[in-house]
Design goal:
alpha/beta; 19 helices; about 15% strand; four-stranded parallel sheet; five-stranded antiparallel sheet
Length: about 600
């Protein structure tokens, strides 16, 4: 079972993931692993660009929330500094911009400055290095998502990356030089990739925490900071030149002072992954631009992955342009003189090709995966992109790499579903017929043909050719469902019939369950029950008659027995009387004889 580390920048809310493959389609480097219908972000492949966060319709992709971490930092020793990206002008209306520094100070920051200060130093240093390396390609490194993309997926072009840190890191180092090494720096901007950039080992300690504008709004709400109740105030430092244009296409080129012409052949600004990839794919030549300013988000940072949807990208661009009105050539005591990099500010950066490599897969393995999904032949490889991969071959390779599942192929699954449905209909013991809007037979399964002694030749004929169309006409008239038992004497058949409409298709379905045998069995059972009742009644009458006869006989026998017993008693009494008289006489005679003898 795949898992996502708790520290991962971009992750999936599994409860919301709905198996739609949208994140696979939009992820520029396919850093998504599908398992059991769930999409997981593969950290070692992920650029943290946030494209999946912006595009997921179910909001199943999210980024690590670091508000609690920021609050803990505010409670630690040392001064606290806020570095806010210049794209904040596209998020906050003008009246809020003037109050934003005060609101940040209410959170506990002792220094509040614009990241554009670092952007100015980065642009001038980039211009200096480009001048020292004429005739070769230079890729600006202000966008961390682009840097990570080149390192991981274009290792041969790492040498073209200008070895200069991003504006966020430059400003953080600038702050620490002024406030001390113990200062805590929190960057606030529209970018998710900045969270990953701050955790690069070689940049450890530059930025302590990265928040997005949405996290800042959450922090304000938790601390009950109301911008409308804050006073207007200025930032502690003002950026120089055109540095506030950095979040727009061509902003860094303008800040570096190369050109203001979008048609300049020496410099090119590209935004959005497809444009960036196309520029990087171009072959270096004398005619090709030698300075490339790539921004991963379309139209630049003003369309960062967590920027609000309203008021729209064109309005956001206009707001940044309006806010970036050239700043007067003045600087605060802590800032370096205009157009001059402070000698003590370290802007050097190192970039390394990714150590990981794509696992190789054999052609026969790819072929087996294609065969499994019914795509062995080239004509069957639709390359529709529904699975999220550009071609069927790319998707087969992803399956072998453990990133994709065969079931992601929508045409394949549709074909399987149709085959299973057809199989169920064809093998059903129940008769199934489908009629068109005119009640003509479109399709019937083998059971229906067997029930009604018909063949495929009947298709196209009206249902009245086989049976009474009345029930179907009721469905056509608007009834939703009809269930009934009908005897089809013509076919010696009794059916339980279920009829219903397919409204969108304007078709009508009939399901016929053969209950002829059960109906005959029921009739036989009813006859048996009737016969049993009659026999039971006859038996009961016989038992009653027998009981009456027995009772009558018992009564007669009782009377006879009583008369007999009465006679026996009288006879016994008479016998006893006679015996007593005899004994009395005998006794009397004995006494007489005795006295006589004396």
């Amino acid at each position: 079972m795949p898992s996502e580390p708790a520290s991962q920048v971009v992750f999936t809310n599994k409860a919301r993931c709905r198996d739609c493959y949208r994140c696979v389609r939009v992820c520029p480097v396919k850093a998504i692993r599908m398992h059991a219908g769930q999409a997981y972000v593969v950290e070692e492949r992920c650029l943290a660009c946030g494209t999946c966060i912006r595009e997921c319709p179910q909001q199943a992709k999210s980024f690590r929330n670091d508000v609690d971490r920021a609050i803990r930092l505010m409670q630690s020793p040392g001064r606290k500094a806020a570095s806010i990206a210049p794209s904040f002008a596209a998020v906050f209306p003008e009246w809020q911009r003037r109050r934003l520094p005060s609101a940040l100070r209410r959170l506990g920051f002792s220094y509040v400055g614009e990241t554009a200060i670092g952007a100015y130093h980065v642009a001038t240093e980039t211009a200096r290095l480009v001048a020292r390396r004429p005739g070769r390609r230079h890729i600006s490194t202000a966008c961390p998502a682009v840097v990570r993309y080149v390192e991981r997926y274009r290792p041969a072009q790492v040498q073209d990356l200008v070895p200069v840190v991003s504006p966020m890191i430059a400003h953080a180092r600038h702050i620490r030089q002024n406030l001390g090494a113990q200062a805590k720096v929190i960057f606030i901007g529209p970018c998710v990739a900045k969270k990953a950039e701050a955790e690069r080992p070689e940049l450890s300690g530059a930025v302590d925490c990265v928040l997005t504008f949405t996290e800042l709004a959450e922090w304000f709400e938790r601390e009950a900071v109301d911008l409308s109740a804050c006073e207007e105030s200025d930032f502690d430092e003002m950026p120089q030149g055109a540095a506030r244009l950095f979040p727009l296409e061509g902003g860094s080129v303008r800040t570096a002072g190369w050109t203001a012409d979008l048609l300049d052949r020496d410099c090119i600004a590209a935004s959005g992954f497809e444009e960036v990839a196309a520029v990087l794919d171009s072959e270096p030549s004398a005619a090709a631009p030698h300075v490339i300013e790539p921004l991963f988000c379309p139209q630049g940072c003003i369309n960062g992955p967590v920027m609000p949807d309203s008021p729209g990208s064109f309005r956001r661009r206009s707001d940044v342009l309006q806010y970036a009105t050239p700043v007067p050539e003045t600087h605060s005591p802590a800032a370096p003189p205009p157009n001059q990099r402070p000698n003590w500010l370290d802007l050097a950066a190192t970039f390394s090709p990714g150590v990981g490599s794509e696992p190789t897969v054999a052609e026969d393995e790819i072929r087996r995966v294609l065969e499994r999904t019914g795509k062995a032949n080239l004509e069957d490889q639709l390359n529709c992109g529904a699975c999220g991969y550009r071609t069927c071959r790319e998707k087969a390779i992803a399956v072998l790499q453990g990133l994709a599942e065969p079931e992601m192929c929508i045409p394949y699954m549709k074909r399987l579903a149709e085959q299973r449905t057809d199989r169920i209909i064809e093998t059903s013991p129940n008769g199934i017929v489908i009629l068109d809007g005119e009640l003509n037979i479109l399709h019937m399964n083998p059971a229906f043909r067997r029930f009604f002694l018909s063949s495929d030749a009947v298709c196209g004929q009206p249902i009245s050719y086989l049976m009474d169309p009345g029930p179907f006409e009721r469905i056509v008239a608007g009834e939703e469902l009809i269930e009934m038992v009908v005897e089809h004497d013509r076919y010696n058949l009794v059916c339980h019939q279920i009829l219903y409409p397919l409204k969108e298709e304007r078709q009508f379905v009939g399901i016929f369950v053969n209950i002829t045998t059960s109906q005959a069995s029921q009739q036989q059972l009813d006859r048996l029950r009737s016969e049993t009742v009659l026999q039971a009644r006859e038996l009961l009458e016989n038992q009653l008659q027998m009981a009456e006869t027995i009772a009558r006989c018992l009564g007669e026998n009782a009377a006879r027995s009583e008369d007999l017993l009465d006679k026996l008693v009288r006879m016994a009494e008479q016998k006893e009387t006679e015996t007593g008289e005899v004994r009395r006489r005998e006794k009397h005679s004995w006494l007489r004889d005795t006295y006589t003898s004396k």
